[in-house]
Every structure is written in C-alpha cells, then in structure tokens.
Design a protein that fits this description.
The chain is mainly α. 87% of the residues lie in helices and 0% in strands. The protein has 10 helices and no strands.
Length: 246
C-alpha cells in the first residue's frame, strides 16, 4: 500500500508540467483544469471501486444491475450533453445504448473472443468499452438529428405534404445523424495506431498478453465499438420517433 501511494505521488508530479505552463502563459485556466482533474479522478476512483466489487463478487445478477445502471447513466449523460428534454429522450437514449451495446457485446463474448464462459472478468471491461464509445458517438448523432429536425421542420412538413410517410420524411435527418457518427470514426481509423496504440495495445502488453493477442483484442474492440455505436444510434432514433410522435 505504501509503495502504491508513493508511485501515485510520483505520477502526480507530472502535473507540474501543464500547471507550470498555465501559470506562465494563462493563469485563469489553472482553476478549470484543477476542477476538471479533481472530478475526473473522483469519478475514476468510484468507477474502479464499483468494478472491483463486481469482479470480487462475480454474481450474475449484480453484473446485470451494473450494466443496467451504466446504460441508464450513459443515457442520462447523453441527453444532458445534448441539452434535450429528459422526459422525451432519456428512455430512447438509455434503451438504445442498452440494446446496441448488449447485442454487440454478447456477439463479441460468445462468438469472437476465445473464452470458455462469460464472467464478470470479461463482461465488465467489454461492456464498459462499448458503452463509453457508443455514448460519445450517440451525443454526436442524436444532437445532429434533433438540431436538424428542429431547424429544418419545413423540409419535413414539405415531404409529408407531398405524400411521403413519416419514416420517409425522416430519412434525410437520419442520414445526417449517421454521418455525424461515421465521419469521426473514419477520421480516427486513419490514425488508429498513433491514437490507440499507447493506451490500449501497450496496456494489454503490460497485462501479459502476447503482441498478436493484444492486436486481436484491440481489433475486436474497435470493430465492436463501431458496430455498437451505429446500432445504438439506430435504436435510439427509432424510439425517439415513436415516443415523440415525429
């Protein structure tokens, strides 16, 4: 424990670099950075303790409760970041994340990853990665969809007035929403080795995986994130259309 505290203090000393640079060049930004850092560390600590508890107990029902809580929380964060009505969009966003992440996550756990049984040791990290990425992409897609449908309502009414069904009238807005999710993915894939290698690949190497296995798991994770993001967005938009009677 003493060794862990010592190493943590040594790691925190690296903050001298950004805070020192801000002190010299932009002192007003020191406070927002310190607040954001403190919030992030507290959230990381709480999340780590929860995950440790789920690992330790390794109970199916507790794992399911953890997953439901995470998807609901991610849905709430998505709606909050998009500045939408909680009453109108919390259920579609949470349900979209639940269905999209669960479907893709189970496909990875059952058919793709070489594991004998689905335990908390595998379920939690796989689902956590998918939820995190899908929630970020859902913010982009859902905010784009709602913004377009709000500011271009005349286009929607025009299509309806010319004989299009409600689903046909929504296609242009859904297409733009999908592109808002796919475009950043395309950009990120072009720099995948540079952006992802230091964090995920090297982390798995330190954890004991061989380079080829680390590459395979990283590939599965990237493909899973893309699939769950698109599926989560699709389910969310379908439910949003139904709930809000668009």
């Amino acid at each position: 424990m003493t060794s862990l505290i010592l190493h943590t203090i040594l790691a925190l000393l690296l903050l001298i670099l950004p805070f020192g640079a801000l002190y010299i060049l932009d002192r007003p930004s020191i406070r927002p950075l310190a607040i954001a850092l403190a919030k992030g560390l507290v959230q990381l600590l709480i999340f780590s303790l929860i995950v440790w508890g789920v690992y330790k107990v390794n109970n199916t029902w507790i794992t399911i409760v953890w997953f439901l809580t995470m998807t609901f929380w991610a849905g709430w964060m998505t709606v909050n970041k998009c500045k939408l009505s909680v009453k109108d969009y919390l259920l579609p966003a949470s349900a979209g994340l639940f269905v999209g992440v669960l479907a893709v996550g189970l496909w990875l756990l059952v058919a793709v990853l070489p594991i004998d049984s689905i335990t908390a040791r595998w379920f939690v990290p796989v689902m956590a990665v998918l939820i995190g990425h899908s929630a970020v992409m859902l913010v982009r897609g859902l905010s784009t969809f709602v913004s377009l449908i709000t500011h271009n309502r005349a286009q929607y009414d025009f299509l309806i007035g010319n004989g299009a069904s409600k689903w046909q009238a929504l296609i242009p807005f859904m297409r733009s929403s999908l592109l808002a999710v796919i475009s950043p993915t395309i950009a990120n894939l072009s720099a995948l080795a540079l952006a992802t290698l230091p964090l995920l690949f090297c982390g798995m190497l330190i954890g004991g995986l061989s380079p080829i296995n680390a590459f395979a798991v990283m590939l599965y994770s990237v493909l899973g994130c893309i699939g769950s993001s698109v599926l989560s967005l699709g389910v969310t938009l379908v439910l949003a259309k139904t709930v809000n009677n668009l």
